[in-house]
Fold these 3 entries.
Entry 1:
Amino acid sequence: MVGALRAPTINSGEPKNQVEQAFSSIDVILKKRWDLIPNLISVAKNYMKYEQETLEKIVSLRSQAMSSRGEGNSRIELENQLSGAIGRFMVTVESYPELKANASFQQIQASLNEVEEQLSASRRFYNTAVTDFNNAIEMFPSSIVASTMNYRPRRLFEATEQARQNVNVGDLFER
């Protein structure tokens, strides 16, 4: 029957395993990002004397995220905060033409942009797997099996409130 809807099942553990695999993929990419951050901060420190608070916040969030190895809601929230801090940092960089022109910074920034694109794709895959899993644990008859196995809905990776807001381009030219 072509085009027939198939109710998701969880008896094989497939949706749960896909969620875990997808989160593991995100974890690998986050490790790449974590590795880039110290290099980025190191180069930026030489130019951004007045942005110590921003740099320290990124370092602090990186440390917290690295030590939070779980896949719970707190880990997702930490990673969202780190993404926001890096985004704010990149906007701040616009005020430092010498830093933007630095070859090392440009290389690190390009690597970070690539990692962020990979992370975005992995988050989309994770969200698809989580949606399938959540559907499976909510639909009958698989909900019965899910209940006995104590499966609970997983949280999607979502854009933070700050990420949803438009960038104020005027801020880029102040300083």
Entry 2:
Amino acid sequence: MGYEKQIAAYPGQLQGYLCDNHLDGVELNVYDTKPYPDDYRETAIGVHLKYWPMWLDFWQHNGKQPETNKLAASYAVQASNNEEWLDIICQNLRVALSYEPEYLVWHVSDCNLEEMFTRKYVHTDEEVIDATIAIVNEIVGMLPEHTYLLFENLWWPGLTFRKPCLAEKLLVGVKFSHVGFMLDTGHLMNSNWELTSEAEGIKFVMDTVRSLGEIGKYIKGMHLNCSLSGNFQRAHLGPMPKVNDLGELINFVSNLDQHRPFQKESLKPLLELVQPEYLNHELFFNTMEHMSGLLRQQQALL
């Protein structure tokens, strides 16, 4: 989305911006294998690792993917085989660790272009979880013992938090002791098309967390945002339309996954239930000034 470029427009001023907005730092998106020109070690409390939305077919067939059109190719894994992809993942991880973050975020999901519209998924949640465990276990030797590896939920196949047994399977299967979850409230809300209000959304998130039982204690971080996209999802359910470029696809996903601030309902009960160590206001914004206004809206409800 170019957010890092906007932050970079504040050379030497990011600390002041964070202070003015009552923030301790940022969660930095690191989607490349090269570092940013600026040093974010003092401000990057967390780092979000690169996410490949469509990767499971690649992994299962060691590089052979059924998608062949140009748009699908830009959306999928850019590698020739599993070994090459693992090397890219490791390069991305090295850059992320260079910022000395307290935690890393890893998306656990797989969805191809057609499935985004039809919702007729080829792979199950468990298949995505199993493959994620296998991949992560290939690279955990690079992780410092003191750094959290937090798995983030989405509404596509993978970690959705709707099946507590699979969330537990992920934690148990990964051979690294400092693991946990990053709960994205908007992503969780996207999994329920019946939600029509903030109050219903908050209740649904809290009910889902309670259903996790003891596993819920492993929610170490929260991406806080509101997404009530049930009507949009219903209106766009069906065969995949002609999508000409990645920009159109991003626009579709942005309407589905809204990343809006909560505006009315108190968030205190949710925070008291989850008690996250890290709270990230993950919101769509146009300018840093715009983001300040959105932050004030949501912070007033904490």
Entry 3:
Amino acid sequence: MGDTAISWTDKVWNPTTGCSVVSPGCEHCYAEALSLRHGWSKKPWTAINAAENVVLHPDRLDLPLRWRKPARIFVNSMSDLFHEQIPDWFIDQVFAVMVSAPQHTFQVLTKRPARMRDYLTAPDRERDISEQVCASQMPVGCPLYKCSEDCEMDGIEWLAPNIWLGTSVEDQRRADERIPDLVATPAAVRFLSCEPLLGQIDLTPWLPYYTACGASRDPETVAALDELFRAVVKRMGGPGIDWVIDGGESGPGFRAANPDWFRSLRDQCAAAGIRYFHKQDSGLRPGKGTLLDGVEHHAFPEVAERAAGEAVA
């Protein structure tokens, strides 16, 4: 566990493993294939086998605290943090670690954004996570390390800018179902993983000024609408979606993606000022197909650029 070849992250951290199929994007799941091949799971990742396949690993919780060099960390590349089998109290501990390691950026990706929304909007969530931070006495970067016994957990930034929350959307149906739950979830950064991309996706319902500006061909009107919407967005604390990743399916039996599907997402993001990351084309081994129309698109949210700039300075 640690370094990874996934191009939009630096490391993987799996405090839980195992999952179950919820939609067509799961059909050729690399995590399931690896787990079955290596014997980490004994049965296919179906709902009926989830209780046996989904495993908590408390011994892995402190791994990010040992990684001193700042890194982007993909949380649960071999599972889903918001799977029904993972109890809230364990998710509290995962968030406590993320809060306690501000040197890292944590990328939490789920196909169950409704539960993520419910979890993070629960009335006592801040208290529960704060108590886990104090109870574990995490020494690396903990804002409350060596706090007094009468501490009321003041000062914990439990929805910190180093915690990014995302959902997977492989087609329009899944976008329509999952994105509303994501944008209703409090987060410093919200992102989409459109991989494996199985159809064209229209994001305009969640990119309001893309629609408004695109309705006018007058450059001055477009500029005025753009400026107005950006001002509103700033006052509201940020847009609904901050980052879009896309990629085609790989491996035996891959389902081919139409390049126009990638182009559409690229163009929607460009028009709306959203950061766009094209991971790969579809193919048996698409490692070299990381360019879209001959151009590399590997943009990250602005918060990542600011953090990188501060680190260099």
